[in-house]
Write a structure and sequence with these properties.
It contains 15 helices and 20 strands. By secondary structure, the protein is an alpha/beta fold. It has 3 domains: 11-97, NAD(P)-binding Rossmann-like Domain (Rossmann fold); 100-312, Mur-like, catalytic domain (UDP-N-acetylmuramoyl-L-alanine:D-glutamate ligase), CATH 3.40.1190.10; 322-461, Protein-Tyrosine Phosphatase, Chain A, CATH 3.90.190. Strands 6-7-5-8-9-10-11-12-13 form a 9-stranded mixed sheet, sandwiched between helices. Helix 5 packs across helix 11 (304-312), helix 8 packs across helix 9 (225-236) and helix 14 (406-418) crosses helix 15 (442-454). The model has no long low-confidence stretch (mean pLDDT 94). Pfam families: Mur_ligase_M (PF08245).
């Protein structure tokens, strides 16, 4: 645990006692902070109180004596309207921050030079974060992995010299981290997402920009216009920028040439890695992820040889284009982490005959951007709230059924694929939707898919039943 000592002896309020919020409350208490915590869920309040964390309805406290207000990233800061606690904090002139900001302040106070890599972007964050951490660990470095990838940042070991931190940051976390200053900051890409929480695409992009604007070295994907403009602005402000691309040749930066990653600098080019035989980094999207990971690792002192060794041994990311079982020529693929259309595209582009399980809580734009992949889909099995909308988009182009539940979809897709005489195929969960209509998160949805696959007759599982690893 990282005890929050930078507010020792001061009064701090906290709202949100879910996983990361409870971890934050513990870290504040451990650091000697006079914390008052609250949540709209009485069970969460009771759990915190049982641990000895002081709780009180924040409507009833004196805000004038607070040094800070810590807000859970899952609680609205600005859109669709600020949470009532935010209004109270602003009225009292109390700064509103999150757990990533607390980490940043602890690092600055105790180990300001310890390497810190922060990763954001609409798609590819988790794979890039896991890949960087793997490269660092495989090179023998003391590595801490956390943030939005699933491990609360304040549960990690405390900052110290030569301890490397690799932190995935959502836009919500960045919005609550005003002094975020990584050694290397990565912005992979920007497409419309979370607009219900940011209002406009421009505001969403502005929030993401803060991560690289505060970085010592900024690694920015330049294949979309928003990110390309951000790279230019950050560079003009005096930050060193390393541009990356999977679609264009760069005069300076890292770019993909097929499966090869090319580094261009001072007029010369050289191959820094070849992903051809690395099955866990299939697809053009992974050339961008790998290029970003390579650039960040180089920025914090990892040698090209160590990077190449780490790339080759990367085990992949759970719930992301993860082959979990096989029956005959049919592979079952868990891509539950594909929570929007752009995130689903890489998996759909990687197989020629797909029995596609899609749906859930729909996001802006639905699946209209995926029409070029429809010829690869033998049949679609639609679930959740998005089923009717997705059916309308598929229309006459793709045979489909409205399965309703994931269990039904897996059973029907498995039965249909068993009769397929057209060659190797994939039964793929790549929902292009959030999970919240039927599951608490995409991990639980992915685990449910694996469980349903495991229950099928004649399927050889490709992953360990407990860890999910190969």
């Amino acid at each position: 645990m990282i005890a929050v000592t930078t507010f020792k002896g001061k009064a701090v309020a906290l709202f949100g006692l879910g996983g990361s919020g409870l971890a934050t409350a513990r870290a504040l208490v451990a650091g000697g902070v006079a914390v008052t915590a609250w949540d709209d869920n009485p069970d969460s309040v009771a759990k915190a109180s049982a641990e000895g964390i002081p709780t009180a309805d924040l409507r009833s406290i004196d805000w004038s004596g607070l040094s800070a207000f810590v807000l859970s990233p899952g609680v609205p800061l600005t859109h669709p309207k600020p949470h009532w606690t935010v209004d109270l904090a602003k009225a009292a002139g109390v700064e509103v921050i999150g757990d990533v900001e607390l980490f940043v302040r602890e690092r600055r106070a105790h180990a300001p030079d310890c390497p810190f890599i922060a990763i954001t972007g609409t798609n590819g964050k988790s794979t890039t974060t896991a890949l960087i951490a793997h490269i660092l660990k495989s090179s023998g470095r003391d590595t801490q992995l956390g943030g939005n990838i699933g491990t609360a940042i304040l549960t990690l070991e405390p900052p110290k010299a030569e301890r490397y931190f690799v932190i995935e940051c959502s836009s919500y976390q960045i919005d609550l981290a005003p002094t975020l200053n990584p050694s290397a900051g990565i912005l992979l890409n920007l497409t419309p997402d979370h607009l219900d929480r940011h209002g406009t695409m421009q505001h969403y992009a502005d929030v993401k920009e803060r991560l690289v604007a505060g970085s010592k070295v900024a690694v920015v994907g330049v294949d979309d216009s928003f990110s390309a403009l951000i790279a230019d602005r950050v560079e003009r402000a005096g930050t060193k920028v390393i541009r990356i691309s999977r679609r264009q040749v760069l005069a300076d930066g890292l770019y993909a040439e097929g499966s090869r990653i090319i580094r261009a600098e001072t007029g010369a080019t050289s191959e820094i890695a070849d992903l051809t035989d690395i099955q866990t980094l299939r697809g053009s999207h992974n050339t961008q992820n790998a290029a970003a990971a390579i650039a960040a690792c180089l920025a914090v002192g990892v040698s090209p040889e160590q990077i190449r060794a780490g790339l080759k041994s990367f085990p992949g990311l759970k719930h992301r284009m993860q082959p979990v079982g096989r029956r005959g020529s049919v592979v079952f693929v868990n891509d539950s982490k594909a929570t929007n259309a752009d995130a689903a595209a890489p998996a759909l582009s990687s197989y020629d005959r797909i029995y596609w399980i899609a749906g859930g809580l729909p996001k802006t734009g639905g699946i209209t951007t995926l029409t070029s992949y429809f010829p690869r889909i033998v049949k679609a099995y639609l679930i959740g709230e998005a089923a009717a909308e997705f059916a309308a988009t598929l229309g006459q182009a793709v045979p489909y059924e409205i399965s309703g539940t994931l269990e039904q979809a897996v059973a029907h897709a498995a039965a249909d694929s068993a009769l397929d005489q057209g060659g190797p195929s994939a039964v793929m969960l790549s929902p292009a939707c959030a999970s919240f209509d039927q599951y608490k998160n995409f991990e639980i949805r992915g685990d449910a898919f694996v469980g349903h696959v495991r229950s099928l007759q004649g399927v050889a599982m490709l992953i360990d039943t407990e860890s999910g690893e190969k």
